[in-house]
Amino acid sequence: MNLADDDYTLFALPRRHALDVDALDARRRALLAQAHPDRHVAQGAAAQRAAMQWSVRINEAWRRLRDPLLRAAYLCELGGAPVRLDDNTAMPAAFLRQQMHWREALAEAGDAAAVEALAAEVAAAEHEALQRLGRQIDDECDLPAAAATLRALMFITRFRDEVGRRRDALGQ
Amino acid sequence: MSAMALLQISEPGQTPDPHQRRIAVGIDLGTTHSLVATVRHGVAECLPDEAGRVLLPSAVRYLGDGRCEVGHAALAAQADDPHDTIVSVKRCMGRRLADVADAARLPYRYVDRPGMLAFATRDGIKTPVEVSAEILATLRQRAEDSLGDELFGAVITVPAYFDDAQRQATKDAARLAGINVLRLINEPTAAALAYGIDRGSEGLYAVYDLGGGTFDISLLRMAGGVFEVVATGGDAALGGDDFDAVLADWALAQAGRSAAGAHDRRALLVAARAAKQALSDAPSARLECTLADGPLAVELGRARFEALTRPLLERTLAAVRRVLADARVTREQVQGVVLVGGSTRMPQVRVAVGELFGRAPLTDVDPDEVVAIGAALQAHQLAGNAGDGEILLLDVIPLSLGIETMGGLVERIIERNSTIPTARAQDFTTYQDGQTAIAIHVVQGERDLVDDCRSLARFELRGIPPMAAGAARIRVSFEVDADGLLQVSARELTSATEARVTVKPSYGLEDGEIARMLHEGFARAGDDMAARALREARVEAGRMVLATRSALAADADLLDDDERAAVDTLLAQVQDSASGDDADAIVAAVEALAAGTEAFAARRMNRGIRAALAGRRIEDI
């Protein structure tokens, strides 16, 4: 066991997208109970530094594994199909049309009910894409396809947050 | 005590003598009052002063000639001596003058300095750090007098909502007061610990903490021996003092009078606080004081007071709802609500919080003492006085950390509510051909514009080799330690000559300044600096020898013969130096031992982690 091990090895979990969140949380607690600087207060500076490094590493891995999108991106990267959000923005035409349709709908939504209806539609799309993502990684083992789904999901979640902000604004 | 006695505490593999237990305390450094508590005979209790009072008013009066009064005497004098009696100094910790919303309402002569304001007193310029250090030194003295020994260390509480500058200022104040800080912990976490939320009480808890000057709301989860802050929120500039101020303003308007100067203002606020406190038990109260132009008396009922202060209460409730939403938690999932802070004695607060959560809040521990008691429990554990199997506290940072990018926008690097310790890095690039330096501006806050966030530090990375725009890769790394304090470093990745810089944000008080204050014997007149440095160095040497020996006893097989010989040599050097009188030599030997055992410590940690995982797997089966 060392700091350079991948997140799944560190948490002793199978390298899959489907994840037992309770097991993940329980392992994090067990690891931190061992590694946290508070456990090594009287052990001197060298032990404190090692504890700090390990705790940071555990928290980093936990944060990544706990989030379905970050976890998927990590699996794609481990499997040699990095998502490359910065320089790969290619999207299927149908997806782009749907995005435009949603943006128009948000711009035109005049009341809470309209925003609510759009929010439900976006949530359904997000759910569907997440399911597909899990299948592509765990069952079909098609990481390039998963990376493409993930890029689309990033758009969807960003738009979902926009809709949420609009809903908050109308609710006040 | 001689150095040899210290170094002979134990032989390899033996645990320290139980009679050598370390004196550790918890300190609640509050806005209106401060307390110190410790665990004695297994029970946490607040330590009283010689008159039997546990609350030390957080008031410092400068008398001139380097003398000052702290606590009750200072508080009693504040109306007569408002300019030189500093109260509620916590509101100014790590703040600039512009950050303190009601600065103009307070009677001080401020000095506006970059980073942190200061007060002009008859004893010279005093920063809030120095004022707080006087309070902490008084508590340290109280603890050492009652416990009959020098302090090993203290856990000091801060509002969960305190930002980096405020936490750093608190830690510096402790340093000035000669206190070894075992950990800064959040007040709500401490309060929950005091409530005996322990291994047995798994579930989700809310802590509503309305103090004199700050309001915090925290959600904590207890599971598997780990006590974790799920989310925190609040308002670092909202507290009982604001209720007093609203009441004082109303009384003036009601009587058609105005306050003439600092003395009037202070007298009015003292009367308002008394009336507020009376209203917690009685349906009506009289606000009475003497102003420059004659006596003032206004009668008011509880309903009037509640109506006047409803907007303040509403602000706290809005923060509670925000935190619940942040954590994606419904109020039904919260199985206990703890009230903290003297201001939660106001009946309308109890009623409103009860209504919001749909359950009566827990109030059986004194809301003034609960934070110090929890801190004492944690200090007891960190000092190694408690047994194994104690619970682990996991805290979070309250505000996001980021840096300024083009157009005055903030790029967040560490999101708020991230568990600490934590570290994250992000890569940036240059935007001009041949650019050899890059300015980095570190900010804290949730807003998208730099101007709306708190500026923590500005620094420059120089010595980047000239490249085309966009070719350089500058990695900016943020590291937040277990006290919630930030360190930032930046380096250029593509060039062989590595440009690198590391900074700790400061708020106008540099390390050099603190060293100077320490040297002036601040906060501990009559103490011999050199003797103290030597004593501390020897204690640290003894501690390190002990820790290294017990590590060798447990895991010597992780070292080969050469490595073992090197560690033994370093150990011998520490012991040699500690029997001499040269503090610097001892410190150097201890540092050499720490550096020389780094790989050993890392291997031991790896082994521990493996054991933790193995244990978990066996449990699963």
Tell me briefly what this model is.
The complex is a heterodimer of chains A (172) and B (621). Chain A has helices at 7-11, 21-35, 45-66, 68-78, 93-108, 112-138, 143-171.
What's the CATH superfamily of the domain at 401-507 in chain B, by name?
A: Substrate Binding Domain Of DNAk, Chain A, domain 1
Q: How many DSSP H or I helices of chain B?
A: 15
CATH fold label of the domain at 401-507 in chain B? Substrate Binding Domain Of DNAk, Chain A, domain 1
Helix content of chain A: over 70%
The CA-CA distance between the termini of chain B, in Å, is 53 Å
Strand content of chain B: 15-25%
Helix- and strand-based class of chain B?
Answer: alpha+beta
Under the CATH scheme, the architecture of the largest domain in chain A is Up-down Bundle
The mean pLDDT of chain A is 89
CATH topology of the largest domain in chain A: Monooxygenase
Biggest sheet record of chain A = none
- CATH class category label of the largest domain in chain A: Mainly Alpha
> Regions of chain B with pLDDT < 50 over 5+ consecutive residues?
1-19
Rg result of chain B: 26 Å
Fraction in helix of chain B = 25-40%
Supply Rg of chain A: 20 Å
| Global shape of chain A | elongated
Structure overview:
The complex is a heterodimer of chains A (172) and B (621). Chain A has two domains: 7-66, Helix Hairpins; 93-171, Monooxygenase (Up-down Bundle). Chain A contains seven helices and no strands. Chain A has helices at residues 7-11, 21-35, 45-66, 68-78, 93-108, 112-138, 143-171. In chain A, helix 2 runs antiparallel to helix 3 and helix 6 runs antiparallel to helix 7. The relative contact order of chain A is 0.11. Among the domains of chain B are: 240-307, Actin, Chain A, domain 4; 401-507, Substrate Binding Domain Of DNAk, Chain A, domain 1 (Sandwich); 528-610, Substrate Binding Domain Of Dnak, Chain:A, Domain 2 (Up-down Bundle). In chain B, the strands form seven sheets. In chain B, strands 1, 2, 3, 4, 11 and 12 form a six-stranded mixed beta sheet that branches. Chain B has a five-stranded mixed beta sheet with strand order 18-13-14-15-19, with helices on both faces. In chain B, helix 5 (187-194) packs across helix 10 (370-382) and helix 6 (240-255) runs antiparallel to helix 8 (302-326). In chain B, 46% of the residues are buried. Chains A and B meet through helix 2 and helix 3 of A and strand 19, strand 22, helix 12, helix 14 and helix 15 of B.
